[in-house]
Amino acid sequence: MNLDFTPKECCGLFGIWGHNQASYLTYLGLYALQHRGEEACGIVSSDGKEVFQYKGMGLVGDVFNGEIIKSLPGDRAIGHTRYSTTGASLLKNVQPILVNYSQGTIAIAHNGNLVNALALHNKLEKEGSIFQTSSDSEILIHLMARAKAKGHLEALLKSLRFLEGAYCFLLLTPSALFAVRDQRGFRPLWLGKLDKAYVFSSETCAFDLIGAEPLREVEPGEVMVVDEKGLRSFKPFRERVIPSFCIFEHIYFSRPDSKIFGETVHLVRERLGRKLAQEHPVEAELIIPVPDSGASAALGFSQESKIPLEYGIIRNHYIGRTFIQPFQLIRDFRVKIKFNLLKDVLKGKRIVVVDDSIVRGTTSQIRVRNLREAGAKEVHLRISCPPHKFPCFYGIDFPTRKELLGARFKIKEIEKFLNVDSLGYLSLEGMLSCVKAYPQENYCVACFTGNYPVKFGREGDKFALERKCCGE
Ligand code: AMP
């Protein structure tokens, strides 16, 4: 089996222009965006002449140290945290990807997934492109290299129209920083200011950490450029399309203390929990959140149902990527190392466990078993979104339909599989009523409905490019 199999998934982006501590602030920004990608990270900086880079596998705090940050001088930088769960990954795929091409040196960092990556890759290769990575992000650089253009900006604007799918890009050259968001705005991207410096981040929690002021979200279909002339905005796409903000960013992926798509994630999750309590009330003594993913929704459920919230599951946050698996030695080790149970709280109680989602169902099944072993009398499971029935081709890591529990079974069957006393998922209408900043049709709900806002052919298979590059 070839393990060089590197799907591009949801990631974190941070960029800054015009600050003498650019790489240190980028390091802090990535720290705040760690949840968007724990597999690898990197920073590219520039002093206006030269470009410097450092990338590594692992968490931001493990990859970087003071010495490394010092080796990344300059007043401009971009950084990336990478999320990928399938197979081994290689340093060459870690971003930002730094290349020299016809217009000069450029670094690129990408959050999202291009649905026509394979078609573009095939075409470009036939025409002579030599790819260095198996990542779809490199495609933009090859398109820019071919564009008949005077400079990076024109090359970028000419190339974007070939891309289909979900993308936020940050690109850095010695003389400019570019921020790009696709026409539908699937993934979040913010513009902020720190003193005189412009900053960009996937989520506002990174701005809070460094004391930057959020100015506004980069608009869907917008290209921003920061250079010695200041900040400029371009709208290179002629046709207008309605946005498709990924609702799962609100449900699970983004941090609760971030603001995305016009509202604070925690407040949306609290509303989801309240709605869930209205749709699926239950007679119970305690509401138990699954930390951290179910915390805000559990609070909303408790407020609405008037059943007290209690911590029954405690999470260990210090799980490295490489602990030694004892295999059969300790049952349910994978789940137990992350979550321990408060037996004295749970014993003899009828509990409602609130979580954000069920994907494959394996974790949830083990968790319910452990809760019963810890003495819970009844376990009622409440999920703050509808059943996941379809994979995401726009950057969230969901398995195929064959592996998605919600696609394989009816609710009653899932209830039996998980061995819960009752199971309640939030309805699609209920979920959509909890996002208030935009009209409901402005959110992508394809993972629940199968209505994909950007169509794709065979190349929509998000692993097709990796299979091609890795000869699978
Ligand atoms: P499972 O019961 O195995 O399907 O796991 C459910 C848990 O996975 C929930 O607690 C979710 O918070 C979490 N989860 C949901 N989506 C993802 C994702 N894309 N990547 C990793 N974990 C996820």
Write a brief structural summary:
The chain has 472 residues and is of the alpha+beta class.
Description:
The model is unreliable at 1-8 (pLDDT under 50). The chain is built from 18 helices and 23 strands. The protein folds into two domains: 12-244, Aminohydrolase, N-terminal nucleophile (Ntn) domain (Glutamine Phosphoribosylpyrophosphate, subunit 1, domain 1, 4-Layer Sandwich), CATH 3.60.20.10; 259-442, Rossmann fold, CATH 3.40.50.2020. The termini are close together. The radius of gyration is 23 Å and the shape is globular. α5 packs across α6 (152-159) and α9 (265-279) crosses α10 (295-305). β2 (40-46) and β3 (51-57) form a beta hairpin. The strands form six sheets. The chain has a seven-stranded antiparallel beta sheet with strand order 3-2-4-1-10-9-11. With 472 residues, the chain is an alpha+beta fold. Adenosine monophosphate is lined by residues 252, 290, 293, 355-364, 396-398.
Structural class by sheet pairing and helices: alpha+beta
- Calculate Rg over CA atoms: 23 Å
Q: Which class of the largest domain in CATH terms?
A: Alpha Beta
Q: What integer is the average pLDDT?
A: 92
Secondary structure: helix percent = 25-40%
The CATH architecture of the largest domain is 4-Layer Sandwich
Share of β-strand residues? 15-25%
Write out the CATH superfamily name of the largest domain: Aminohydrolase, N-terminal nucleophile (Ntn) domain
Distance between the termini: 8 Å
Bound molecules: adenosine monophosphate
Strand tally, please? 23
Number of helices: 18
**Spans of at least 5 consecutive residues with low confidence:** 1-8
> CATH topology of the largest domain, anyone?
Glutamine Phosphoribosylpyrophosphate, subunit 1, domain 1
Tell the overall outline: globular
* Largest β-sheet summary: 7 strands, antiparallel
Strand order of the largest sheet: 3-2-4-1-10-9-11
